Please model this.
Amino acid sequence: MDSTSGMVGYVAACLTCGAALRSSSRTIEFCQDACRRAFNNRRAVRGAEFYDLYMAIRYDRSEAKRLKAWTKLTKLARSYREEDMRERNGRKSWKPLKAVLMRHTHLNSKVIG
Ligand SMILES: [Zn+2]
Model:
C-alpha cells in the first residue's frame, strides 16, 4: 500500500514492461492492454510447448524416455528464462504459484477417510 501520497492505493510494476503502476486495486498487473496481451500470449505459446512435452512424459512414457523429453523440458525452461533475462530485464514471465493454486483449488484437496 502507498502511504506516501496520502491516498489509499497500491504500487506495483507492469508484468510486461516494468512500468510503475498505481491503483486503488490490489490486483492491477499491466499498464495497458497491449502489455496484458503480450504477457498472456507469451504464456500461451510457451505453455503449449510445455503441455505437449509434459503430457508425453506422463502418458507416452516409453517414447518420452527414449527421446529424453524431461531433459528437453528443462532445457526449454532454461531457454525461456534466458530469454526473459535478455528481453525482459529479468522480470518473471509467469504468474505466482499461489495464483495458479487459487484458480485450481481442487489441487489442494486431500482424500480423507
Ligand atoms: Zn506495461
